[in-house]
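Exercise 7.
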Amino acid sequence: MIEALRRRSTQRNTSHRDTETQRSGKSSVSLCLCGLFVSVFSFSLCDLLAQSAPRFDVILRHGTIVDGTGGASYTADVAVSNGHIARIGNLSSERAALDLDVRGLMVAPGFINIHSHASPDALPHAVNMLTQGVTTEILNPDGGGSIGIARQLADAGTSGLAVNVGADIGFNTVWATVMGQADRRATPEDIDRMRRLLVDGLEQGAWGVSAGLDYKPAYFARAGEVIRVVEAASAWRTNFSNHDRLTPELNFSSRAGIAETIAIGEAAGLVPVVTHMKAQGLEQGTASSLLLLTTQAEARGHYTAADVYPYLAGQTSLGALIIPAWAQDGGREEMLKRFTDPALRARMVVEAEQAMKARFGGPEGVFLPATKRELVDIMREQQASAGEAIVRVLEQGDATAILRFGVEADLVKILQHRTTSIACDCGASTDTHQHPRAFGTFPRVLGHYVRDTKALTWEDAVRKMTALPASTIGMVDRGFLAPGMAADVTVFDPNTVIDRATYDDPARLSEGIRYVLVNGHVALRDGVVTGLQGGRVLLRSVHMPSRPMNTAARRLSVRGDIGDDIRLTIDMSQEAGAARAKGRLRLDDRRSKIVVETTELGVLQTALNWASFTALARVKPAGSEGTVTVIFERADPAVAGHPPTVTVDISDVLRVSGVLKYK
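Solution. The predicted structure, written as tokens, is:
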């Protein structure tokens, strides 16, 4: 029997229009299907799809399609219906409620920012992100954020969402919750408690485990302690993204920090993600050797990824990476007390200057954006050393700093590496005194590093903003322009796209992003934010593994029964470099006589013992057409005995899910 599944309310933005079936008010019952329980409505699939008969909401005509696969671009029309990609091809005989001629423009999947510091009050409008082409943001990077993921995301959507949002579970927050601000060792009871908090975050839909081991107090955690905590996530087949820990004992080595991130990920059974990867200070010019660490990990059988922003300076709190760890032990109040001890202050000043030299080239590498002042100017005015000037600024209150760290040749090599995603280390924001990356990252890559310097191709740059980050964190229905995928779409002018934000004027909006669709809603039109709030809260399930992009030839052939009534047949393949799969899915409900059969296939995504794809499907006897998302587990780690399982979501509101008995 096929029934309709009530989605968790947090998966939809509360301002998003309810479907007709959800408004019907029919009561739900419980259905046990092959040992898996779901909540269902008592109405017909045919009735539901008949109410949403194929009708295109938007057609983007004559654009150059850059589909996220990394394959060659091509010219076609794109139709959107009910929040999904409905057709790609020659649609000259079709019409839509909104027709947009995008001739001469590039049509791409919406950009996915997997490292977002978004401010909740900016998410309802997200002007700085929509004008960069971003449609999805993953919150809680660098180990921060809330451990109450469900509440955090529910609160984020209370005023509507201009973009989609998901969240990581932050190791730093977990560590501080249990361990406090002091440098102390974790007991077995502490470890157990932290593991439970971590898993609870994953059960609430977190997309991965983030960490910022360079930040206190997580800095105090030893690698073995980190591994024992985060390995609790291994059954979820997720990722461990980390802002690398650079220590004075290892001369603030980027290489050592990246090696530690990879080692923790490997030992914990997670995909390591080197976040905002860089070759800092004394190790400038060594990007090739840093990237070799990721290649060597892959050779050992451990996929390793990274993300990067296209700038040679970062931004964080002034003292976080400059004031020595021992001085920050116990938090800010304890640090301020140590400032008053002449001997400790003198030691702090010396060690702060050593850190600045090793990481940022000395005081010349420090700029304070809130006051638009260089540290060297403050030193000159106060007749103080670099370290003393830092201490004096911090005595007056917390401050943020732009910290210059690298050289262009390293940045280009990291950008070009095949497993490096583009992420801005920023998010939806109204702050006009910050790093220009918050307003310019994605257009800067497209305008400067693709069009102007040709360091990247259009196709690979888009892949690094869409399908690659989606695969890295486990998404299955975003990141590609393909039938059945969510209609997150970014349209940009390849001749004009560029960033305009600078360190002196960081809030200038980018240019050249022309249209942005978020779940089919036109959020940006002619470069101007419309105010439509099509964003949703996105939750990850245990069936969405972090994985490399598979662009080699692949095949999925499955035939079996789900329960007593449903027969499922899947026979499909995708050639290396092809934009879409070929083949079919057929689902027969022998009791109701309903048949679901695919008409157009999207991208076949595969990993070890796992596959997923989206498609368009015809439902008989009604003749209605809907979208389909399929996840197949050859040995499901979430079910006792690890049997094969399959989940088929139809038109975003219906689900068939259960153990598959091969035939």
